[in-house]
């Protein structure tokens, strides 16, 4: 626990690592100090074959075990001792501008609508938008401060003038004190699952058949910026991505780069029309 705190791991990461290591030890009914690479492989096979976990879900388990044995227990083990299954690459499903508009019109609550609009307008993760404070909205500089985003990194994102109007309307109605979007528990922000539930309810009301989650709005933010001609590097900074390759995946779904490219089929000369088949002979 102290090793994670010293390295400033996010609170959710610390909780996840503890859960993963505890499950690993309980499965073999021994202290992790007495377990090794063979048990790690057996545990991963069990999770994959018996528990039917997807490769992406095994990432947290492997991350926790790597931290435990390499950092805390200082075992000189290599990456091969923590086999990571290859994750299938899936492109995000992106909402069009029209679908975004329809979706927002289907959010009945002013508070929930403001939360989801903020997530889209600034490209925020759901954990970032629920932890916004009133003081994070800087209307003089027209920026939003994101405190302790993913990997504990702060950043600034744009404050849309249109979003500022919505936020002021919401503030006049709710008068939030500390947290911009307070939850049902006094002194705590709104829960992530509450935002997810509001998102799913709005999707059903809108009639949109594509999957819509708070993270879908972040995908749409990046894709729509790219389609509008924004530089990929600038989008990376706004999204808070560590690697440019993470941001570059939106090049694969942006219509400005995919659909605007001319197919070589369109460069071919028009072929002669296909002759009509001869009429069938008449027998009676």
Automatic annotation (TrEMBL):
InterPro entries tied to this protein: CB, DNA_brk_join_enz, Integrase-like_cat_sf, Integrase_catalytic, Integrase_recombinase_N, Integrase_SAM-like_N, Tyrosine_recombinase_XerCD
Gene3D superfamilies tied to this protein: 1.10.150.130, Intergrase catalytic core (1.10.443.10)
Domain named Core-binding (CB): residues: 1-73
Pfam families linked to this entry: Phage_int_SAM_4 (PF13495), Phage_integrase (PF00589)
Keywords, sorted A to Z: DNA integration, DNA recombination, DNA-binding
Superkingdom, taxonomy of origin: Bacteria
Keyword DNA-binding: yes
Boundaries of every Tyr recombinase domain copy: 90-263
Database matches in SUPFAM superfamilies: DNA breaking-rejoining enzymes
Family: Belongs to the 'phage' integrase family.
Protein name according to UniProt: IS91 family transposase ISMno24
Organism from which the protein derives: Paraburkholderia aspalathi
